[in-house]
Design a protein that fits this description.
heterodimer; A: 379 residues; alpha+beta; Rossmann fold; OB fold (Dihydrolipoamide Acetyltransferase, E2P); six-stranded antiparallel sheet; elongated; B: 296 residues; mainly alpha; MetI-like fold; 2 domains; globular; ABC-type D-xylose/L-arabinose transporter (chain A); ABC_transporter-like_ATP-bd (chain A)
């Protein structure tokens, strides 16, 4: 167990003479025992970052420190890490027992008896003891996944690296394994770096999440911070499902002016906007309130375009014009029924809006957390 | 519906007719050879070659004779079949092993100049036997292998065969490397990365993962190389001068040289010479199919 530090690491690929920056100056401190999720769209450099930690790729510049030691130049076997791959990467000609013993045989001086007892204990912990003498080809995807985890756990490494380990599983098994993995990591207390493109996994599993885009680190924060206080437009749009509604507006003296509507702003909000002229207004679907009749200045007449029933809630796609394409989405209670074509008034409360500078993407103002503080003392 | 089935059955009949005709066409020489090999010389001259022998015409004598000419007693370690095996087995195993290791180095390790080296291997596949005959004999004359082997009579008597082993091994490496390379390229790369993270060195990864998973491709390579080496005539003709070291193909050719053409003995000898390659196919057939299908 150890803390892991990424210190300004950069990875540049040479692609026929032109340089491609896969990872651009990323620095993250990961505490001992922490579960950090690296998340971002495909091609954002998250897997490359993980592979640099593993030593499967060499960093073009920057240092990686593990428990105080610089491991940057070391081959994977000298780093004391274990990795779980998306494809499980089990050795097909070996039994489960041999798969799990392989790492201990290759990297330690443990006797066969010791190895066997460690493997058996771990297999019991993962409830795969009955499968020890089978080969990977005879196992289901979920079982192979457990073997891959077991192979990493027996090594008792300083850091677990996981590269989209659940993405080959079906939806039900995935959510089950998600919980199990989290519990396992908590029990073992091993520092873990987990790569995923799935923001649900990121939100539910991580102690903190690091959001990457185009090789650049966007924000490192707890899931709730990233959700409620995104550092920029990208994070705001990436975290949350359905994603945040955005409206491009122009900042005027006392209001934001857009193609569809004008949004009056208070003095406080005006100060947050500052000198920015092009502003993006963001509002989470669950913060949009649908009311019967508009009464305030933040109420706007809309028409229901499509309703997506989710059971516990409905996603309502709204348009400002009749027959217009849906422009934003509101999440309402699942028992409340609305029909397509029905006119409703959407209320966009000022204390729930996020404002971003359209040109730079920087956050100008995040939503007020006054009402959240009662239930979430961390904020 | 009845017309449909009829149409189908007519085309099916035509298909089978063509298939049977082709089968007969390809099997005819084999059948003729076999029939010739079990006929007396008289019966051969008095009947059509592909007709089976009747009564007195049937004999197994050509087989005994062919065996005596090609090998003699099995305890006689200088028979032609024995010599062929002495060359073919080591040459096959060596080119297979070296090809496999080379392919591993060319596929799963990263180093500078890899593409250039691979090109050399590919080019090596296209060098015709005939073009190297003179350089090859010159090379072995300059090397003077017999001087090094003088201390070991068993090997010294078989200098020509040892030269053949080395030559065939070298000639077989390119094709073996290319075959293994395409096979290894289909391996899951993250499996090898997992092994690296598990602490295995490059040599250990080869020993414990690549090599055990190579079995089907080894079957392909062994069958192919063994047949190539066993059937080679040209190199054996040029490199082997000692009569005690002649291989099966040379011995078979010599049968034809006698004053009277003993067709039945020649045919029986041809079957005797071909038998080992057939045996290799039977032994590695299942693995061969797996390797050709490219399963990992």
């Amino acid at each position: 167990m150890a803390e892991l530090t990424l210190d300004h690491i950069t990875k540049v690929y040479d692609d026929d003479g032109s340089d491609i920056v896969a990872v651009d100056d990323v620095s993250i401190d990961i505490a001992d025992g922490e579960f950090l999720v690296l998340v971002g769209p495909s091609g954002c450099g998250k897997s490359t970052t993980l592979r640099m930690i593993a030593g499967l790729e060499t960093a073009s510049s920057g240092d990686i420190r593990l428990g105080g030691d610089v491991v940057t130049g070391r081959p994977p076997r000298d780093r004391d890490i274990a990795m779980v791959f998306q494809s499980y990467a089990l050795y097909p000609h070996m039994t489960v027992r041999q798969n799990m013993s392989f790492g201990l045989e290759e990297s330690t001086d443990m006797s066969d008896g010791e190895i066997d007892s460690v493997v058996t204990d771990t297999a019991e912990m993962l409830s795969i003891a009955a499968l020890l003498d089978r080969k990977p080809g005879e196992l289901s995807g979920g079982q192979q996944q457990r073997v891959a985890l077991g192979r990493a756990i027996v090594r008792d490494p300083k850091v677990f690296l996981m590269d989209e380990p659940l993405s080959n599983l079906d939806a039900k098994l995935r959510s089950q394994m998600r919980t199990e993995l989290q519990r396992l990591q908590e029990d073992l207390g091993v520092t873990t770096v987990y790569v995923t493109h799935d923001q649900t996994e990121a939100m539910t599993m991580g102690d903190r999440i690091a959001i990457l885009n185009d090789g650049e680190l966007q924000q490192v924060a707890t899931p709730l911070e990233a959700y409620h206080q995104p550092a920029n437009l990208f994070v705001a749009g990436f975290i949350g499902e359905p994603s945040m509604n955005f409206f491009e507006m122009e900042a005027r003296e006392d209001r934001l002016s857009g193609d569809q509507f004008d949004y009056p702003i208070s003095q406080e909000t005006r100060e947050a906007v500052g000198d920015a002229t092009n502003v993006t207004l963001g509002i989470r679907p669950e913060d949009v309130q649908l009311v019967e009749e508009g009464s305030g200045e933040h109420d706007f007449g809309t028409v229901v375009d499509v309703v997506e029933p989710m059971g516990n809630e409905n996603n309502v796609y709204l348009s400002f014009e009749t027959d217009g394409a849906a422009e934003f989405v509101a999440t309402i209670d699942g028992m409340r029924s609305l029909d397509a074509g029905q006119p409703v008034v959407a209320r966009i409360p000022e204390d729930a809006i996020h404002l971003f500078d359209t040109d730079t993407g920087e956050t100008l103002k995040n939503r007020s957390l006054a009402e959240l503080e009662e239930t979430e003392p961390r904020f | 519906m009845s017309t449909d089935t009829e149409g189908l059955s007519v085309s099916r009949v035509a298909l089978y007719a063509v298939l049977v005709a082709m089968a007969l066409f390809y099997l005819a020489p084999l059948e003729t050879g076999l029939m010739t090999a079990i006929k007396t010389q008289d019966a051969f001259f008095s009947s059509t070659p592909f007709v089976p022998p009747f009564g007195d015409g049937f004999t197994l004598q050509p087989w005994y004779e062919a065996w005596a000419q090609m090998q003699g007693p099995l305890t006689d370690f200088s028979g032609a079949l024995y010599n062929s095996a002495f060359v073919a087995i080591p040459a096959t195993v060596l080119s297979g092993l070296i090809g496999s290791v080379a392919a591993y180095g060319l596929t799963n390790l990263n180093w500078r100049g890899q593409a250039g080296v691979l090109m050399l291997f590919v080019a090596g596949m296209f060098v015709p036997y005939q073009s190297v005959l003179v350089p090859l004999t010159r090379f072995w004359t300059i090397v003077g292998l017999q001087n090094y082997l003088a201390g070991v009579p068993f090997l010294a008597q078989r200098v020509g065969l040892i030269e053949l082993i080395v030559t065939h091994t070298a000639y077989g490496i390119p094709i073996c490397t290319i075959l293994f390379r395409s096979y290894y390229a289909s391996f899951d790369q993250s499996m090898l990365e997992a092994a690296r993270i598990d602490g295995a060195t490059f040599t250990r990864i080869y020993q414990r993962i690549i090599f055990p998973l190579s079995k089907p491709m080894f079957a392909v390579v062994l069958i192919y190389q063994f047949t190539q080496v066993w059937n080679d005539f040209l190199f054996a003709l040029v490199l082997v001068s000692s009569p005690t070291s002649e291989v099966a193909t040379i011995a078979l050719n010599k049968l034809q040289g006698s004053m009277v053409q003993q067709y039945n003995v020649q045919m029986a000898a041809a079957f005797v010479a071909a038998l080992p390659t057939l045996l290799v196919y039977v032994l590695f057939g299942d693995q061969f199919a797996e390797g050709v299908a490219g399963e990992t």
